[in-house]
């Protein structure tokens, strides 16, 4: 028999003991680290402007353009932290274990933007003027989740999003050709993985409390999923380049983000669903099948494009 729908207040109250358990596990597992340790300060030099140094030039760095695009997208996504904090604080509250987690998560996330920006600026990998203009534009747009503050939807979204961000950071670091960049982004990705575990375990508990509601939330989020940086100026072009490079694409999204999290929640073998919960699960299965086909078509087009480029280079 399916579950009776619960209000947000009931869900927050029912999940609070799980939040406290997961918070204590997180605090025992998380490792202290410092952004300044990942920045090669001795390589820096003054820019033009007030300091009278040299203006930025694309020749200042030999990092591949696609990796630069990915670093910019990753950084500008991290920059919108004030909006993310507002969203989760409004949804989860600022009291008790929920509030402690919200502020701890925010403090940890803030390190990511600090470290990546300092690294990019010191290494002169991107134009700092254009980067700042993009930051201003993106942050002025703010961020609003697509599900109007619904608590279970918010938990489902961050479970997938934190894992997607971890993968994007790790793959960007590997493609950078700079051991320090890879080390920095691996450190950031480790934080994102711990955040994913917190949210994933919390939503797993929500399935036990209100399975039909939770299944509907998961399906809604999977079908409408967008990365939080989709409002970044030039995002569509950058995302295409990132996908073409294999840093983050539909195949990774299907195989390495959606599938493992859904498997952890045992969504396709769960019992106790009825009504909308069963319908939501059927919708989810259909959507995943279609996404898998779309990912395969993209891979085929990408390989054909690479083959054409290779043939052109040889001629």
TrEMBL record:
Q: Which SUPFAM superfamilies match?
A: Ferritin-like
Q: Does the keyword Lipid biosynthesis apply?
A: yes
Highest taxon listed in the record's lineage:
Bacteria
What single Pfam family name could you report for this chain, choosing any that match?
FA_desaturase_2
User: How is its cofactor bound, per UniProt?
Assistant: Binds 2 iron ions per subunit.
Which Gene Ontology MF annotations are present? metal ion binding; stearoyl-[ACP] desaturase activity
Q: Which UniProt keyword terms apply here?
A: Fatty acid biosynthesis, Fatty acid metabolism, Iron, Lipid biosynthesis, Lipid metabolism, Metal-binding, Oxidoreductase
Naming one, the record's GO cellular component terms include: cytosol
Q: GO:BP terms for this protein? A: fatty acid biosynthetic process
Signal peptide interval: none
Q: Which residues bind Fe cation 1?
A: 78, 109, 112, 192
Per UniProt, where does Fe cation 2 bind? 109, 162, 192, 195
What cofactor does this one take?
Answer: Fe(2+); Fe cation
* Subunit architecture: Homodimer.
Family assignment from sequence similarity: Belongs to the fatty acid desaturase type 2 family.
Which PANTHER family does the record match to this protein?
ACYL- ACYL-CARRIER-PROTEIN DESATURASE-RELATED (PTHR31155), STEAROYL-[ACYL-CARRIER-PROTEIN] 9-DESATURASE 7, CHLOROPLASTIC (PTHR31155:SF9)
Q: What is this protein called?
A: Acyl-ACP desaturase
Q: Which species does the entry assign this protein to?
A: Bailinhaonella thermotolerans
